[in-house]
């Protein structure tokens, strides 16, 4: 501290003091990093909540009921929302808005695009502003060298149910379940042995038969059978997953598309069928 005495005709009591201090360096501001991370997480949650809100409203509109017991599409959407951590209050508000007919938005639109000369892309959106959505989609596609063009012929539009069947006997015999499903109106049945509990099956059907097939499986009074998901999906006619540079480019493009608030789902011909 430095003391500076100003001499003047004023009495000594008016002596003034000036203090100097080295500036405090910010260093590593942990709170700043935490705040930035929290802000990014909050932004991601906001996009997710808005997207699921529109999906719920669209499911009510398409399925014709705000009662999940009467609307299989809504039941699946609600399950998806809960699994992704959407708060109960948000779900209830979306249901109330859809049931009350207060929301005139939520139009479902599907865009088609070709990327990297050979990769077909189907982009599903639920939007209240088509001009905004198509502008955002085109902007991302252009940034990755992709463009909108018909690629529907590269996919099969089908209903898909994922069913887990527990191998209680431990012998890997799922013939009874397979026989039950194949007696229904299905297109295909595929097994994925990635589950330690037993067998995970994907049951494919015509889109118009999805609700009926879901009800049949849910009503199957057999232990160890659990319906994990039910949705309309696009399955590549010729799936050609590649672990190289092309796959990385496709993943980056899909990620950028999914960051758009209005987009609910993106399928590519690089997906596993």
Task: Describe it.
- With 273 residues, the protein is of the alpha+beta class.
- The protein contains 7 helices and 8 strands.
- It has helices at 30-63, 72-83, 88-99, 130-143, 175-182, 210-218, 245-258, and strands spanning 107-115, 119-127, 147-148, 155-166, 188-192, 198-205, 225-236, 263-268.
- A hairpin with a 3-residue loop joins strand 1 and strand 2.
- It is globular.
- It starts with 29 loop residues before the first helix and ends in a 5-residue tail after the last strand.
The helix count comes to 7
The largest beta-sheet arranges its strands as 3-1-2-8
> In terms of quaternary structure, what is this?
single chain
* Chain-averaged pLDDT: 80
What kind of sheet is the major sheet?
Answer: 4 strands, antiparallel
Beta-strand content bin:
15-25%
Overall 3D form: globular
Give the terminus-to-terminus CA distance: 75 Å
Q: What percentage of residues falls in helices of 4 or more residues?
A: 25-40%
Structural topology:
Blueprint: H1 30-63, H2 72-83, H3 88-99, E1 107-115, E2 119-127, H4 130-143, E3 147-148, E4 155-166, H5 175-182, E5 188-192, E6 198-205, H6 210-218, E7 225-236, H7 245-258, E8 263-268
Antiparallel strand pairs: 1-2, 1-3, 2-8, 4-6, 4-7, 5-6
